[in-house]
Amino acid sequence: MIKQDKGRFIVFEGIDGSGKSTQIQNISKRLKTENLKVYTTFEPTDGPVGSLIRQMLSGKIATDQRTIASLFVADRTDHLMNSKNGIQKKINQGEIVLCDRYYFSSYAYHAQYIDMEWVIHANSLNAEILKPDLTIFIDADPEICFKRIKLSRTDFEMYEQIDVMKKVRINYFKAFDRLKDREKIAVVDGNRSPEKVEDAILNEISKFEGRL
Ligand code: ADP
Ligand code: TYD
């Protein structure tokens, strides 16, 4: 499906509970059966800035929304550039990088509180370093996603509220529309079974690779 001639950067986006982690795991397994070198990663990262962000999202550290938005920019630059396991290095080594969230998450989540143009501008250095080859948006109904989260957990992070999730979904589409000339985006229906969603994603990757 993918010819491992050079690295790829494939980003998975969606509201909380849309199935990103599930799909990344499954797609990674699938690509590995084709002997491809796959590296999976996520934001917020488990590095120093990402760990700080997680404490803010869980409510352990009080802060304000501008601080969170700015920290995500820094976390992303570290995610790209750090010399141990930075994405840029993996891509240079020819790996297929599957990433759970990237800058479209910032556009969608922080535009609730800050002008989206500011968020896009604040991330411009990251976009200059590395744009995704393909962003896959798993589009699932906020009510369904909220139910899934409630089934799997008892404590909730800052943005895991139904009203927020509805706004974030709308913001994703605003951001896609704004950047449609610069970015390659595929939207898949995430309301179906994990197997169906996986097939749809593999189909989009094949289309992108020109192998359909
Ligand atoms: P995300 O990473 O986008 O937050 P997850 O992959 O963690 O989402 O999925 C959230 C919850 O929903 C998990 O308990 C997962 O098992 C379940 N789930 C994921 N995809 C589906 C699906 N297509 N249908 C039903 N449940 C799903
Ligand atoms: P994540 O762990 O991916 O949550 P989930 O697995 O439930 O989807 O992300 C944690 C939260 O961080 C999530 O609510 C989205 C938010 N977030 C931002 O607000 N801005 C960003 O730039 C990123 C990457 C994530």
Textual characterization of the structure:
The chain has a single domain, classed as Rossmann fold (3-Layer(aba) Sandwich), CATH 3.40.50.300. It has ten helices and five strands. The chain has helices at 20-32, 48-57, 65-81, 87-92, 103-110, 116-122, 124-129, 142-152, 162-178, 194-208; strands at 8-13, 38-42, 96-100, 134-139, 185-189. Strands 2-3-1-4-5 form a five-stranded parallel beta sheet. The longest helix has 17 residues, at 65-81. The radius of gyration is 16 Å and the shape is globular. The model has no long low-confidence stretch (mean pLDDT 97). Adenosine-5'-diphosphate is lined by residues 14, 16-22, 148, 152, 193-194, 197.
Shape: globular
Residues in β-strands, percent:
5-15%
The helix-strand sequence is: EHEHHHEHHHEHHEH
The residue ranges in which pLDDT falls below 50 over 5 or more consecutive positions are: none
Bound molecules: adenosine-5'-diphosphate, thymidine-5'-diphosphate
What is the number of independent domains?
Answer: 1
CATH superfamily: P-loop containing nucleotide triphosphate hydrolases
- CATH class, named Alpha Beta
Taking the alpha carbons of the first and last residues, their distance comes to 9 Å
Please outline what is shown here:
This protein is of the alpha/beta class and 212 residues long. Helix content is 52%, strand content 13%.
Highlighted features:
212 residues, five-stranded parallel beta sheet, binds adenosine-5'-diphosphate, binds thymidine-5'-diphosphate, alpha/beta, 10 helices
